[in-house]
Amino acid sequence: MGGDTFSPDVNGSARFAEHLASGLAARGHDVHVVAPSAKLPVGARTEIYDGQKVTVHRLYSWRWYPHDWLTFALPWRIKQNSARIIDEVKPDVVHFQSHIIIGRGLSDEAQKRGIRIVGTNHVMPENMLAFTGIPKFLQNWAIGLAWAAARRSFIRADVVTAPTRKAADYFEKATGIDNVYAISCGINADEYVADFTPRTENRVIFVGRVAGEKHLDVLLKAIQLLPADLDTKLDIVGGGDQLKNLQAMANQLGIGDRVTFTGYVTEEEKQRLYTRATVFAMPSIAELQSIATMEAMASGLPVVAADAMALPHLVHDGKNGFLFTPGDAQELADKLEHILRLPQAELDVLKNESLTIVAAHDIQRTLNTFEHLYRGEPVTAPVVGRSATDGRTDAA
Question: CB neighbours of 76 closer than 8 A, spacing ≥ 6?
Fold first, then answer.
């Protein structure tokens, strides 16, 4: 398995790769991960994830300074490193999580050796523009180049997947590669705790990278627009390059005393923060699935999310929460207020519906599906059929 981001990085792609690797290891597979060093020692060593031993091959990497934490493996050494590791490990299958550097090298060398290749796309080039310094008038050209580069790597794969049907359709349109499987990243819902005791405060929570594409300025404005009698508190859980700017904005809006920016927290603390919250808010317009939204649902939270990309796959409007027009702070505030004023019995209906919907995203189903794909076997769920919402269905 390989990707341009992996633990200790905190993002959806890295977390999916971590849980997929540990889940496969728990089933008896010998799992090797190729990843940037990310300030860790270079070389191969055993690392522990979810209590499972995984061999991680850390490649010498440099910091990408426009970004607040990202490091990258050296592109001019990736083919040599990929060939060396593949020849040492002799894998039955190579599964790359991004095409930019490590996935490009692994897929190229695996193809030369006739090794089965699976590729999963978690990347939206549009989200990376803020960290490139590319002038605005050249950005569409750059996005086109990025998708062309993605095609060159993913076309080598025997199977291509994306986290949701929406993400798969988006990828197919951008690259011209057809029959992309939609397979949920999955979560271990048992790790999260739903609390149905009567609430004593109104607390909104967001979990994720504190970055521009998350549109957290919209959430801050919505909190400021909520009626004072609700005395709503907001927890923004995560770190990112926009942290200081958003802290300043919260103070300017006069809600600094009601907004807590936790920065990065442990898994245990994150789970506790989910459990004590009343509602989860996701204003992002660039979610290919949103593991954080699934975690919130597994914690029994109703969700108010932007009606964008893959979020409608998780948030069924009026069932387990509400969708709002992206960027519309007043509409977000109105939907949050509606939930915060619900009687406990009606709130519990939304909470239970979140638990029901997220059950379909159990990590064990995801592991089963990938095991079939690794072996070249047909998957048990329809993956390119039709659904009631957008004409396609998801696997796992």
Answer: none
